[in-house]
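**Protein record**
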Amino acid sequence: MDVDETLLDYENKLPALADRAIKEARKKKHRVYICTGRSEAEVYDYIWNIGLDGMMGVI
C-alpha cells in the first residue's frame, strides 16, 4: 500500500482503523508491504511498528 495520503492521513498520522486493518490482515497470515517514494530512513518508526513485512521504495 502507498504511504502518503493513503496509509497516513494529511497530517502524517496513522488512523486507528488503518492500524487495526493491517494487524487483522497479518493475523490472517497476509503479508503487508508499503510502496513509497520515501527511502527506508524516511519511513517513520510508528509505521514500521504496526508490523510490516517490508517495503518497496527508493534506495
Q: What stands out?
A: The beta strands are 33-39, 54-58.
